[in-house]
C-alpha cells in the first residue's frame, strides 16, 4: 500500500501527464485490462480518462482497473483515474519512504 507521502509524490508526477486510455460505453473489459497492464509495466504511472458515455461510475471503473491490473489507485479526480504499479523491468520512479 502507498503512504500519503508516496501518493502526494505520484500525484505531482502525474499532474503533467495526458490520459493514454479512455473508458467508454463498453466499460472495462479483458482486452483493456491487458493493455493497461502492459502500459503500467512500461510506464509505471499514468492516467485513464472516463468518457461521458461510460455506463459505470468512476469508482466502479477504478476498482475494476485496480483489481484487474494489480495496480495502486493514486487518485480519482473528475473523470480521470491515476494508476501506479511498480515496474519489474523498467523502474523509473523512486518513491519517497
TrEMBL record:
Keywords (A to Z) from UniProt: RNA-binding
SMART domains: CRS1_YhbY (SM01103)
Superkingdom assignment: Bacteria
Pfam family, one: CRS1_YhbY
Keyword Cytoplasm: no
Gene3D superfamilies registered for this protein in UniProt: YhbY-like
Cross-referenced InterPro entries: RNA-binding_CRM, RNA-binding_domain, RNA-binding_YhbY, YhbY-like_sf
Listed GO MF terms: RNA binding
Name used for this protein in its record: Ribosome assembly RNA-binding protein YhbY
Lineage: Bacteria, Bacillati, Bacillota, Bacilli, Bacillales
Amino acid at each position: 500500500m502507498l503512504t500519503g507521502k508516496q501518493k502526494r509524490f505520484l500525484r505531482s508526477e502525474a499532474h503533467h501527464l495526458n490520459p493514454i486510455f479512455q473508458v467508454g460505453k463498453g466499460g472495462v473489459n479483458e482486452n483493456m485490462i491487458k493493455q493497461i497492464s502492459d502500459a503500467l509495466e512500461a510506464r509505471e504511472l499514468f492516467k485513464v480518462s472516463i468518457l461521458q458515455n461510460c455506463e459505470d461510475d468512476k469508482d466502479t471503473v477504478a476498482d475494476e482497473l485496480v483489481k484487474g491490473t494489480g495496480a495502486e489507485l493514486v487518485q480519482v479526480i473528475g473523470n480521470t483515474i491515476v494508476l501506479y504499479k511498480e515496474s519489474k523491468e523498467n523502474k523509473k520512479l523512486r518513491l519517497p519512504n
